[in-house]
C-alpha cells in the first residue's frame, strides 16, 4: 500500500508539473495563424496596391462589426450591439458612435441628406399649418437611419442627435431602409405602402399603396421616388405638386435587391434572373432585359460605363450600361470592390481579388485577401475598403494614386 501511495503521489506531481496554470484571456499568449494576417504591404505592392490608411477601431468587450458602408465622406460600421460608428473615409479617423436600438432589434441601411434643415424638436402639425411660426436651426449634413418602428437623424459630422428614437415613431412597420430628399424620408411598409415621413414635424405626410410588400429599399432621384417589391412591379412617384404615380412597369418576379437610379436610367435586378433598364422620367424600356441564370438578390453595382450584377448560384456579370450587352462574366466572381484606371477589382468566392480589365474581363493579377472579413462593395471611388470583425479598418489604393480628396468621395461620380 505504501508503494502504491508513493506512486500516486509521484503521478500527481508529474501532472502538476506538466500542466501550466490556468490562464485568463488577458494573460494568455495569443497564437496567430499567419494565413489569417492581413495581406503584407510587400504583397500588395506586387499588384501596385498599398495601404493608404489603417485604423484599429476601439470596440466594447464582445462587440463585433457586422456591416460596413460608405456614404460620401463617411464610412459607417454597424455592430452586433447595433451601434452606428462613423469614420472619416478620407483619413481613417473615428468621428462618433451611437447605439441606435437594443441588440436584438432590426436596423436598416443609413442614408445621407445634405444641408438638411430641422427644428430642435418636432413641431407636429403646427409646422405644416403655420410654417412661419417655426424656428429652424442652421442647416447641417445629416445621416438618417431607421428601425422597424422609428427614424433617427444625426448631424453626420459631429454625431449630434437631432431626432432620436423617441421623436419620430412610425405608425406602421417598416420593411426596408429609406431614401430622402432632405425633407421627407421615404420607406416601404410591411403593408405594401410607400410612406413619406417628415422628421421636422414627426408626421406621416402621405402613403401610396402598392399591390404587395415593398422589399427593396426605395431610391430618390430628381424629385421622384422609385420603389419595387413582391408584386412584380416597379413604380415611379412624382413629388412635385401633388405626389402621384407617373408610371409603373411590370417585371417577371419580386424586386428584393437594391436597384440604382440616375439620369441615365433605372437599373433593376429581379428575382426572375433578369436585369431591367428603364428611362427614369417616363418608364420607357432602355434595352431588352439582360438574362442571367440565377435570381438577382444582391445590390446592383453601377460604374460609369459598366453594370455589375451577381446572380445567385450563377456568376458575376459585367454589362455595357448603354446597350445592355454582356461585356464578360466570371463564374467565381461575387462583388466589385473598386473600379480604378480601367480595371475592375473583383472579389471572388475564394476571397481572392481578381484584377481584371473593365471592358474585356481579362485577368491581369490575382491576390488572396487573407485576414479580412468584410469588404465594401464600391464602383464610384478609387479605393478599396476592408475590415475585420474585431475592428481593424483598412483603406487600400493604387501605388500611383496620390491623395484621396473630398471631391472623390462625393456621390456625384456615379453616372448622371
From TrEMBL:
InterPro entries linked to this entry: PQQ_b-propeller_rpt (IPR018391), PQQ_rpt_dom (IPR002372), Quinoprotein_ADH-like_sf (IPR011047), WD40/YVTN_repeat-like_dom_sf (IPR015943)
PROSITE patterns to which the protein is assigned, alphabetical: PROKAR_LIPOPROTEIN
Domain Pyrrolo-quinoline quinone repeat: 153-364
Protein name: Pyrrolo-quinoline quinone repeat domain-containing protein
Organism listed in the record: marine sediment metagenome
